[in-house]
Amino acid sequence: MKNLIPLTTLIASTSLAQAASxxxxxxxxxxxxxNSPPETYISVTSGAEYYGGTIGGSVSQTxxxxxxxGYSFFNASGGTISEYAASGGYVSSLTPTDVSGSGQGSYINxxxxxxxxxxxxxxxAANFSSQTDAVARIVTGDIxxxxxxxxxxxxxxGTFADAARVTATLSxxxxxxxxxxxxxxxxxxxxxxxxxxxxxxxxxxxxxxxxTYLNDDNDASPGSRARISGLVITAVPEPSSSALLGxxxxxxxxxxxx
Length: 258
Hints:
The chain has two helices and 16 strands. The protein has helices at 7-15, 241-257; strands spanning 21-31, 40-45, 48-55, 58-63, 68-77, 80-87, 91-105, 108-111, 133-144, 148-160, 163-172, 178-181, 185-186, 191-201, 206-215, 226-237.
């Protein structure tokens, strides 16, 4: 009779994961023009989950790496920040610093339910195309990632003439904070709008991904050249205990039939 692996061992083995990690995998310009209407496009519409933009007249389109689990898009006014489109409830503690003027810019087209592609490009009517950015030199926030084993956060932000970046921190009871200072986006004399992607793994008790958007614009009107629109979370949900139990039972039955 072949030896059987105890069910508790099977369940424990399915729970093992690699060490917690946080990595900036890419930062790319989605728009290098100072035009209106905006030329960065983001779609979280079911079945059409991708982003893109216009560089030198060419429209790009890139699919998110996993299904969208949640998103948060925000603007600022009077020194406060507001989410105008959100899903999942994962984002909290949004705080702007050095809000310039009304604090609202219009630099993205956001599709939350509408079809972005009527004839193959981003030509459908966006759900949000006005006041889609926080014009603030610094914006911070927290993302609750405790329900995900791993995933990605896509940040969409821009600048004009000054450098800007997003720094991300993964924290929790699992150990020391993991901090990644994102690469700069420097636009020169034109608008530069970008997407930067951070991949995370929450193994060992990490549960919060905090971020800071920082623009170097700190002249007489700090923040006037800064802009950040929001973020999209694509992630793998944490397996439930019942799912793990089912996996363990299936493995046990397969071994018994051999």
